[in-house]
Design a protein that fits this description.
about 220 residues; Four Helix Bundle (Hemerythrin (Met), subunit A); about 75% helix; about 0% strand; globular; binds protoporphyrin IX containing FE
Length: about 220
Amino acid sequence: MERRTNIRWWLLVAVSLGVMLAFSAPYLAFDPDASRVDVSSSAWHYPLLVAHILTALVALATGFAQFSERLRSRKPAAHRYAGRAYVASVFVSGILAFALAAFIADFAKAVSFLTLSALWLFTSWQGYRYARRRRFADHRRWMIRSFGLTLVAVSGRVLMPVLLLLYYALNGFSLPGGREGMVEEALNVNIWAGLVANFILVEWSVLRPAGRSKELS
Ligand code: HEM
């Protein structure tokens, strides 16, 4: 990896882990009253949400570890174990996310999470299958796609200020539903925005034939 790519990579690692640890922290106390998501409706909702977050954190950490060239070349067994932990955590977290979507009142928001879960499970499954068949170039492409989707959790949140600004501008620089209404509207579309942004970045920047993919390997 050249120096500039290296800096960008570590910035991505720091921002992703920093943002997601900050958002996950209230749930690590296992206190439903500290939940940012409204969970007053069901006894199932909170445990499912916490289990989703804990397994998603494992996916995020092991996913980053998989891109370490040093780990892959010096400790291939560790790469394989971390890879299995990544796929297993995506599967558990992704299936839990399907269940969580059932608790979401807004239709557009629920569909965004259902779409993200389905793509997350599909791309990870493809990556796993190709590793089992020892088709490592395909394995690598699908795992990059899978991890690009893991990072939608980050980009969806990082894009929030842009969406809030857009909402404000599109409403003629006023807040018809107040601040709460603005945040709610932005949260209904942030996953869609993150999905589109990450899809473009992964397919046109990382995976395009003459792109940076070589530098990441
Ligand atoms: C990429 C696939 C993912 C899907 C489909 C997904 C799905 C969901 C769903 C449906 C919720 C409930 C949202 C609500 O009721 O408003 C949620 C919440 C949450 N998820 Fe995920 N998630 C994904 C990845 C991740 C990752 C990688 C993390 C990293 C730790 C994560 C952390 C969280 C947190 C912290 C919440 C609580 C909401 C908040 O307080 O902001 N998720 N997720």
